[in-house]
Design a protein that fits this description.
Helix content is 35%, strand content 27%. Helix 1 packs antiparallel against helix 4 and helix 7 packs across helix 8.
Length: 247
């Protein structure tokens, strides 16, 4: 937490976050524009924001794109705000709208969080249908084999809210699958991709979730959903209890 607050305290870093809030997924050259400092200076500020988990960087071709990561802000919210506000409040209002303004030629949603667990336990939490019921209120059903189907099934047995196909599986490091509403599963224009990357980070695991190619009408709902899911997953693995979002 101290690292997050130190990163937020600097006006230049606040300005960089504001720029990513306005247009998420920018290269260094765009972030340097109109700043009275060298590229090296901006790079150093971005490094501080990355170290605090407030910014994540993703290689996209030859470019390195920077994304505002709201998960640490959600953790601040859960620690100090949610007990005083309605349980469904999802982010600090100044930085809530983190994904608007992205375009289809770059990832639309990128979230990073650090979880005090092992890669194996985190992988199991992503793939064990009974564990997903605890933090996601759905069962994720699949054989977890490339090319096989994946379903996000309701707990009452009435069907799936989302379906897809396993695209990549490399336990316990990387999992990717397509994502579509059941009625739209055959339409490539309405099918997106979710990727989970798990990397060891000392006593923690760095989890990066990337959701690519979302239809425009699904961006806002998906953004709010991922903030809740990832925060609840972290809470379950670290405390044994998921967050209560009233699902």
């Amino acid at each position: 937490m101290a690292q997050i607050f130190r990163a937020l305290a600097d006006p230049t870093r606040q300005r960089l976050l504001d720029r990513l809030h306005a247009d998420n997924g920018q290269p260094l050259s765009a972030l340097c524009r109109d700043l009275d400092m060298t590229r090296q200076g901006v790079t150093q500020h971005l490094a501080v924001l990355e170290a605090a988990g407030l910014v994540s960087a993703v290689r996209h071709g030859r470019q390195k794109l920077h994304y505002l990561n709201p998960v640490p802000l959600q953790e601040i919210h859960e620690r100090w705000i949610s007990r005083f506000e309605q349980p469904g409040l999802q982010a600090l209002s100044a930085l809530k709208r983190t994904i608007e303004g992205t375009t289809m030629d770059k990832p639309q949603q990128v979230y990073v969080t650090y979880i005090a667990t092992t890669q194996e336990k985190l992988w199991a939490a992503l793939t064990d249908p009974e564990v997903t019921t605890q933090y996601w209120a759905h069962r994720n059903i699949s054989t977890w084999t490339k090319g096989e189907s994946w379903e996000h099934q309701r707990l009452d047995g009435s069907g799936a809210d989302v379906v897809g196909t396993i695209l990549e599986v490399d336990p316990p490091r990387r999992l990717a699958h397509s994502w579509a509403l059941p009625a739209e599963a055959g339409d490539p224009a309405r099918t997106s991709r979710v990727t989970f990357d798990l990397e060891p980070a000392g006593t923690h695991v760095r989890l990066r979730m990337t959701h690519d190619d979302l239809p425009a009408d699904q961006i806002e709902e998906s953004r709010d959903g991922w903030e809740m899911v990832l925060s609840s997953l972290k809470s379950l693995l670290e405390t044994g209890k998921p967050l209560d979002f009233g699902w």
